[in-house]
Amino acid sequence: MVAGLALATLTAPGSAVAAPDHTAPGSTAASQGYPDRKLTFDRTATYPVFQNRPAGEDPATATVAEISAVSPNGRTLVYTDAAARRIGFLDIGRPDQPRGLGTLSLAQLGDAEDEPTSVAVVGRYVLVVVNTSASYTAPSGRLDVIELATRQRVRSIDLGGQPDSIAISHDERYAAIAIENERDEDATPPGGRKGDLPQAPAGFVQLIDLDGKTTPQRWKLRTVALTAPDGRALPMLAAAGITEPTDPEPEYVSINGRNQLAVTLQENNGVVLVDVPTGRITRAFSAGTASVSGIDTGKDGRIELTGSITDVPREPDAVAWINDRYLATANEGDWRGGTRGWSVFDSRTGQVAWDAGNTFERLAVRYGLHNNDRAAKKGTEPEGVAVAEYHGVRYAFVGSERSNFVAVYDLTRPTAPVLRQVLPTTNGPEGLLPIPSRDLLAVSSETDDASVGVRASVSLYRLGADRTGFPSIVSADDASGAPIGWGALGALSAVPGQPQQLYSVTDAAYTPTRILTVDTRHSPAVVADATTVTDAAGTPVGYDAEGIFARPQGGFWLAVEGAQGSENRLIRLNGNGRTEQTVPLPAQVAAGLGKQGFEGVTASTGRDGREIVWAVLQREVATDPAGIVRIGRYDVTADSWSWFGYRLEGTTVPGDWIGLSEITVVGDRLAVIERDKLNGPAAAVKRIYTVPLPTGPTAAGPLTVLPKTLAVDVLPALQATNGWTQEKLEGLTVGGDGQVYAITDNDGVLDATGETVLLRLGTYRKVFGQR
């Protein structure tokens, strides 16, 4: 995590900006987005739930983990898998080695289309709420009570509608279930627009008296209607300004220590409070609107925190009581709203006591997790919120569905939350499950995409580590006070004359291209500055820059990949990022390339002052032997290319390929990154090899294949983060401080978890065995 950071000034290309430096705990750094070290959760494991599938099932079958619960001893985790119509069980007795315990198919308990929507554990029973609806107009559902030890159903209770979430009271005397009876987004109500409310039948809440937890057959169901018997609005809801009180659509439920129930009406932008013992509605209030500025509102490949939204309904999804007075909401939004943050409400007044404003979205930007693809919609989409107390301190955990992180806040003062930490997740974190009895937090992620190898998972985090693996890199503020936007860092270069600085460059995930200065004095490292790349006329330009080299003579070389072979080229920039020279590939080489061309660039200067540029192609040229890729030597003075061969490792995994991703000079050798396209538990080849540095050009004829030597297998270092092992190990350099650095490309948070891993692999001598 970012450990106690203050501000210092760094010198880098372009304008100087403020960048964090170390300060003592208790500083004001947390208010600037850099938490101090009073809390440290560290990720211990990431368990892909497809590994817990039934025997014989195709591993590519969609399987997810949405909402989770835990046994009273904190050792068995139960999760819902709506995609596969089942619930799953994990042994988390060892948080660093979770183990699949199999699944229970709802087809065995009802119908093959029955969908679990939430789960809870009471004593020795698992309570699974199940959507059995045949249609939007005929919603139905049930509660299955399953004995945890035997996985046998001991009772099934008809809920009378389509359920969404379930909550258990602290004293375990009550359960509350939101019966949403959700709207059909494709239906048009009379006088309304497509997807509008109202759409009958109306939702309500079911309460269950648990009768001491031990005898499910004696449990009693009570209904809390949120509309009048004739379907009209309840006066209390109408007076509160609920959007459409005749169709409340309750979404999420939470019960406080006084057995007060809070229910969010997401589409209706409201909250209803219920006294659970009596079933009486005690208050209803609107979640209100918010105007937020300083956010990214354009899906245009630019991270620009200059946009704003005005008077947008919060439309809260998850809700959690902070104490018996204040409650927190995750304002994901639905059809009309979403304010990209979370709020604290005073239940006594229904008023906002605190609101995150733009700070939640700016966390995504600072930590390199911003998803520009969602900028024009609801941004980070904070969907989940949970509150729990660890060692006398109460914390809020807020999950971003679209940027794949959970932010952790200290709630010592409920009306003034303090950011403590940001935790990376896999895609679509849905369920947030604090397990304070074991100092654990479990996060279940619902997005599963076997086609790109990023699968739904359960991630575990433990409180108490001295240091954490994430983040390894964050950004400082720019001159306007906003965090520098960054991502897709697939290249590295040392900064001449600055031993503790590196350069990186953004690729086609963003436009225009920017050169980023990374300060490695800090842990995590800090993106301290950004320089926009321009064409020869000075106009900002978007290159698919896959490699960068900072020339000792000044300026840069970029290796630019193209959608087709002829678009691959070397670009020489001056020190301000202006394009000064373009070097195309030879036509016969370009003709044999597909979309995977240039991936890295470096340069060397001989004793005669002659500059030689070295570049790698990621995949084979069509006319070359299979498994042989090219390393190019470009003589700047002679304006001539010559080529050498490099033999790739093999792969037998269907759909996989292996290629080169980077090149850098290390003494009398060239170091390259060789990798496969696999991630997660399938990742196998993430290596750095060296080859002899050719002393001159080659004659025409067959490629001379350079002998390679393994320098370091990087896979163990990537796996040591205990997260989803990243696919794109793409940047490598030796810094002026003598350290070897490598970095992963997060693909701009598209088809990837979005996590960036900056590795410090050791000294130049240790890694490459050279002085």
UniProtKB/TrEMBL annotation:
<feature type="domain" description="Choice-of-anchor I">
    <location>
        <begin position="338"/>
        <end position="419"/>
    </location>
</feature>
<dbReference type="InterPro" id="IPR015943">
    <property type="entry name" value="WD40/YVTN_repeat-like_dom_sf"/>
</dbReference>
<dbReference type="Pfam" id="PF13449">
    <property type="entry name" value="Phytase-like"/>
</dbReference>
<dbReference type="Pfam" id="PF22494">
    <property type="entry name" value="choice_anch_I"/>
</dbReference>
<dbReference type="InterPro" id="IPR027372">
    <property type="entry name" value="Phytase-like_dom"/>
</dbReference>
<feature type="signal peptide">
    <location>
        <begin position="1"/>
        <end position="18"/>
    </location>
</feature>
<dbReference type="InterPro" id="IPR055188">
    <property type="entry name" value="Choice_anch_I"/>
</dbReference>
<keyword id="KW-0732">Signal</keyword>
<feature type="domain" description="Phytase-like">
    <location>
        <begin position="485"/>
        <end position="747"/>
    </location>
</feature>
<feature type="region of interest" description="Disordered">
    <location>
        <begin position="16"/>
        <end position="35"/>
    </location>
</feature>
<dbReference type="InterPro" id="IPR052956">
    <property type="entry name" value="Mesenchyme-surface_protein"/>
</dbReference>
<protein>
    <submittedName>
        <fullName>Esterase-like activity of phytase family protein</fullName>
    </submittedName>
</protein>
<dbReference type="InterPro" id="IPR011044">
    <property type="entry name" value="Quino_amine_DH_bsu"/>
</dbReference>
